[in-house]
Amino acid sequence: MRISPKHSQRIAVTVMWAIAGLTLAVLAFIISYILWHGLRHITWTFLTEPPQSMGREGGVLPMIVGTLWVTGLAVLIAAPVGIAAAIYLTEYTREGRMTAIIRFGADCLAGIPSIIFGLFGFVFFVITLGMGFSILSGALTLALMVLPTIIRTSEEAIRAVPKSYRDVSFGLGSTRWQMVTWVVLRSALPGICTGVVLSIGRSISETAAVMLTAGSAMGFPHSIFESSRTLSLHFYILSREGISMSNAYATASVLILSILGINLFAYWLMRRFVAKAV
Amino acid sequence: MTQVLDIDQIETTGGEGPKVLVRGFGAAFGGNEVLRGINLQIRPRERLAIIGPASSGKTTFLRSLNRLNDLEHSFSHSGRILLDGQDIQGSDMDVAELRRRVGMVYAVPIPLPWSIYDNIAYGPRLAGIRDRYHLDEIVESSLKGAILWDEVKDRLRTLATNLSGGQQQRLCLARVLALEPELLLLDEPCSGLDPISTAKIEDAMLELKRKYSIVLVTNNTKQAARASDRTAFFFMGQLVECGPTRQVFTNPANQRTSDYITGHFG
Amino acid sequence: MTTALTQTVGLTRPKTTRFNANPIIRIVLMLLALSAMSGLAIITLFIFKEGVPIIAKVGFRHFLFSSNWYPLEGEFGIFSMIMGSLAVTAGAMVVGMVFGLGCAILLTQFCPPRWVSIIKPAIELLAGIPSVVYGFIGVAILVPFIRDYLGGPGLSVLASSIVLGVMTLPTITSISVDALQAVPRTYGEGSIALGATEWQTTYMVILKAARSGIVAAVILGMGRAIGETMAVIMVAGNTLDVPHSILDPVRTLTSNIALEMGYAAGDHRKALFATGVTLFVIIMILNTIALTVSRRRSKGKVLAK
Questions:
Q1: What is the pLDDT of residue C251?
Q2: What is the ipTM of this complex?
Q3: CB-CB neighbours of C180 under 10 Å
Q4: Do B207 and B141 contact (CB within 8 A), yes or no?
Q5: Which chain C residues in 10-49 lie under 8 Å from chain A, judged by CB atoms?
Q6: What is the pTM assigned to this prediction?
Q7: CATH of the structural domain C79-297, one choice from 3.20.20.60, 3.90.550.10, 3.30.230.10, 1.10.3720.10
Q8: Chain B residues bordering chain C (beta-carbon distance below 8 Å)
């Protein structure tokens, strides 16, 4: 029996809506499951006290601080480099061999799995450069990891700035650098920030790479040369070794909430950017 | 078609040299030649209109005068353009400085997405002026020069993109005036404007001509007849005819000019 | 052509530098722009420097095709892990393709804009959830479910495939959406005008036109799946056998590295780097295929996500 085109259309569309619905349901389930089990364990002391007996008791303050350090430092290193690369690609050269090399490098780097970044960070930063398991090693590794994202999003944002703005700026007697810093970057800022914010999200989520570079020390980090356990790694260890489920859920909730906040912020920035560009 | 000389160039200009002297100027983008053998002069404190059908090289010529074409990778040129006797392509010419001396207003108003004040102050700030009072002064006088001051003086800090089309174009004019250029290039500045806004821009031009030389590229022959002292007719990348506006419009020397003016083509 | 004209008419290029740009700024920016490339180079260098000697010592064939991984006895064969990675990735691609492509087609062809503005950010959010959380949900929900209803230990190829499939869905969807949106509207309109239904148009005309972009999306999704570490460790079971059914537990290349790196030393550690080299080579091959496939269509477009 043949199915008529009209029926096959109806079936196909229904199936696709089911797929999309299931996807949304999975997302909603993951978030609500974690928050349902975790939110009630998040207390003021949980956020402001160090862990006790391997994390069975106490809070996660050192992990929060460690995560902030590693993530902040990584983005602080990657953002200027990535934005500079995007400026070079869009304003200071034209398509040719050089841009092909740069793009190839960024594309390949984007595809490398985080565990490889971890291995590299371990042998290069931790051992060869003698930084040891430290916030700095972790941050440098993560910086390399998020660099392609920042380059790509910044480039897109800069390309979206109308060419006529550049004409106007040159027409008023600006040098190229003045044009870039006063006009282009100012207009592309929301787009660039979106990329940076998404990179922050990625750094917070990352576990494999920081495990091999920042280490898993539970103490309060006093400098960037000390080892520190990030939230995601703490969650992994707590849940995998079955140390404390309530603390694991609470840690995961802190992670999920920060990721939610970051994505909302990026979404808001993006909309503002689009509204402005039109 | 042979090279046509600017008929005025033989005349002496009363002791004062020409503001701009163009000699045998040609331009091309890649293999595509868009201007050839242009000889022309622009006198101090005159309004020169450039008319001609679409793609006759008017805009390219205009953008050559402040070297904005240099931004296109495929651009190449021949001949010389002298500003006050100095070759603008010369190695001792600072391009940023040149563009400050030769201001340009585009066909479409392009306010930068900032406040009115920041738009006007952008040029002077680029040139290194930081003093608040000085900038305030420049903003006020530029807006007055473009006949916009009275409409916006109470909302200088609001977004320039919220102005109407006509106001935006006068804002762009004011932004150029803030640099006190010697030569003002207007590239079809009224093409998207209503008659009242057009009249305001033309009024401003009449006022500005006391201080500046003005080159006006326009598709509107009536505007050229109304708002210029001399007119040049470009066709297919060449200068066909140039002379006092009244003469070009009433008694053109070239058949093509008269065809264009009377609307037979273009 | 240009040069010929320049000679005959005597045109000269503007004498100043192309960009009237400060050469110092230009060079500094260029060096910074090369950082990604140098990063890639130095990563390759160090991973290979650590890993390749031990492969040579063990023997290339033995390393790749032996399933004996006994670090203490100096036996390093990663065949079972390669098979584990492939099995898990293949499963993930089934899940990822069905869901990722389904979402992409729905978003570009059939979905009202109001729903697009809900589904798209949701899928982006899915990409933002930490992999440890996916792994955790897998262990808490999926693994017991499989154990109770399908048999086996629960920690299995199947569980890893589903978790990885969901994790690669955002990659596949977003790149496919780009590819589908790049198909000119007129293609579809032409088909509709001939009396085809929207669905016929979609699978006969639009999917065909966007084929290379979708292939690139799936390959990049594969790269994601094969490189994922933490989630797989938590749900795959990590035993050292070649899997025979989708309910068997497996160990992947990535989990092998992450599990043993903490205490490995000497040749053992080097062998883990060699595992990394294998993974690296697989990823590079996948990336190169994806890049060439998509470059052929839209030159110069930055692709990887």
A1: 95
A2: 0.90
A3: 22
A4: no
A5: 19-22, 25-26, 28-30, 32-43, 46-47
A6: 0.87
A7: 1.10.3720.10
A8: 26-28, 30-31, 33, 36, 67, 69-70, 73-78, 89, 91, 95-96
